[in-house]
Design goal:
Blueprint lengths: L4 E8 L2 E2 L1 H4 L3 E9 L5 E7 L16 E9 L7 E17 L4 E7 L6 H4 L1 E10 H11 L3 E5 L4 E11 H11 L2 E6 L2 E6 H5 L5 E4 L3 E8 L7 E7 L6 E7 L4 E8 L2 H16 L3 E7 L10 E5 L6 E13 L2 E10 L19 E4 L6 H9 L5 H7 L1 H10 L16 E4 L3
Parallel strand pairs: 9-12, 13-19, 15-17
Antiparallel strand pairs: 1-2, 1-5, 3-4, 3-20, 4-7, 5-6, 6-7, 8-10, 11-12, 14-18, 15-16, 18-21, 19-20, 20-21, 22-23
Helix pairs in contact: 3-4, 7-8
Length: about 400
């Protein structure tokens, strides 16, 4: 049998340093995370005292790393796993024997992104515009995966750019991470909807753990917004009564409140059922991928990978993954336009109409707007795209002249 071999290629402050560092490297760990900055750590021996003397690292040193594998799948295949670029944010000496650990984080070129507090009012913007302006301050590319979100007004009140952007993204259902000179914002719902293209079989696993809990999960969420007409605070319920999550986030309108409530529930309930495993070498997985579990009985299903940890030791390589179960596809898909229960007839959208106003007119409550949206989802989305929108944002955009079916209340 062909023996697998593993090595770590390193560039330190722009200089190829594999030959100098490898003789002292005891272990290397690379953590690929879905909604956190990636990290690396190096554990080194310092038996000759070189690191404590002239080689001592400095905070904000730059480090690039790559895992090189030979005979990856038991044959002669070579594999390169690029870990990305990192900033040294922590190092520690200990002994005896004398050792050094260096930690790095995938982050912008300086600490201002995480430490400098800023005050700014964002008005009549979008989530992409906010992210792009912040990325531009640090010379980073902004990668935006998902439908853009209108933001009427939000305040950055003494928060560092990294904290503010991450919190704002989460409010609207997006995750955020920094990686190799980029700030990446991605819509959770978009990632969760992707098909599982890989399968983790029980025969691939060294050890595994599965956990399902009700602790910290919710059946519904309550969100408030101020009615622009009456100036009254209105509280809406997303989901069902029972174990309610009360978010402090304030919405701009009922559509915004609905979106915030749905995302708060998704964030809170995402890790209701979790799975972790140590896999055999040869498996290639990345954070954010959806995979199928097979051979685990009732635990089989579709899962999203939240974290992948690669560890290279002396002649050894291990891979740990962890993630959470994704909801099964809804058993009763929304009806196609005009199908289902006979309704109140049709209505042609007029200038200034919103689904929430129409819901109040036909059903007596703006909170039932989803009934109109689901009955007309296909035509609403088609018209939004015809008008140049990526989508309707769950009915946020409707246009004059669109004919809607009005189902029974």
């Amino acid at each position: 049998m062909v023996t697998r071999r593993y090595a770590v290629n390193l560039i330190y402050n722009g200089v190829q340093a594999t030959g100098e560092i490898s003789p002292y490297l005891n272990s290397f760990t690379y953590t690929d995370a879905l909604d956190e900055s990636d990290t690396v750590s190096l554990n080194l021996t310092d038996r000759e005292g070189r690191w404590a003397a002239g080689w001592i690292p400095q905070k904000e040193d730059r480090l690039s790393a790559e895992i090189a594998a030979e005979n990856w799948n038991g044959g002669k295949e070579q594999k390169r796993i690029s870990c990305g670029d990192f900033m040294v944010d922590d190092f520690r000496f200990s002994g005896p024997p004398d050792k050094l650990s260096i930690s790095g984080i995938s982050s912008p070129l300086n600490l201002d992104f995480k430490e400098t507090r800023r005050y700014q009012t964002w008005a009549e913007a979008t989530l992409f515009q906010i992210a792009s302006e912040i990325a531009g301050r640090y010379g980073l590319e902004c990668v935006f995966e998902g439908a853009d979100i209108p933001v009427v007004k939000t305040e950055q009140s003494g928060q560092a750019d990294g904290d503010f952007l991450k919190k704002t993204a989460e409010k609207y259902g997006f995750g955020m991470k920094t990686y190799s000179g980029r700030i990446i914002l991605f819509e959770y719902a978009l990632y969760e909807s992707k098909a599982a293209e890989k399968t983790i079989r029980k025969s691939d696993v060294r050890k595994w753990d599965y956990k399902s809990t009700m602790l910290g999960t919710y059946t519904g969420a309550k969100v408030s917004y101020t009615n622009p007409g009456t100036k009254e605070t209105v509280e809406i319920l997303v989901g069902k009564e029972g174990r309610l999550y009360k978010t402090n986030e304030k919405a701009d309108n009922v559509a915004d409140a609905e979106r915030i409530g749905q995302n708060a529930l998704r964030n809170a309930n995402r890790k209701e059922t979790t799975f972790s495993a140590s896999l055999l070498p040869g498996t290639e997985l990345y954070a954010g991928e959806n995979v199928n579990l097979s051979g685990f009985g009732k635990m089989d299903g579709r899962y999203q990978i939240g974290k992948v940890i690669h560890q290279v030791g002396t002649g050894d390589y291990s891979l740990q993954v962890s993630g959470w179960r994704l909801p099964e596809e809804a058993a009763d898909e929304p009806k196609e336009d005009g199908q289902g229960t006979a309704g109140q007839g049709t209505y042609v959208v007029q200038s200034g109409d919103t689904l929430w106003d129409l819901s109040e007119r036909f059903y007596g409550s703006p909170e039932l707007y989803g009934r109109l949206y689901q009955a007309n989802r296909k035509v609403i989305e088609r018209e939004a795209k015809r008008r140049g929108k990526a989508d309707s944002r769950n009915g946020y955009w409707i246009f004059p002249g669109t004919e809607l079916e009005v189902p029974e209340g």
